[in-house]
Amino acid sequence: MNAFALVKELGVGVEIRIDYFKDFEGKYEHDDIVSAKEIESVIRLLMANGDDNEIRKKAKEMKEKSNAAMKEGGSSYGSLGLLIEDVISNIS
């Protein structure tokens, strides 16, 4: 999973800076380093409003779903078991 998916598609992250510009010829001067001030502002945004923060709510919901999938009887648990069985049965 990449940063774009976390921020734009799932809504469980905050965009600091997404630069799609790539200067292969070295013609332009630009700074790729994220400043401490930018990081601080994003952390403050994430920490604001406690449990009422939508991003934090979505992250907590995703955590709960992920935990349920990994428990016995969950979809990921079952899929992993099937994969292991398949690998073992196909060993020559």
From TrEMBL:
SUPFAM superfamilies for this protein: UDP-Glycosyltransferase/glycogen phosphorylase
GO MF term list: UDP-glucosyltransferase activity
Annotated family: Belongs to the UDP-glycosyltransferase family.
Name of the protein in its database record: Uncharacterized protein
Organism: Solanum bulbocastanum (Wild potato)
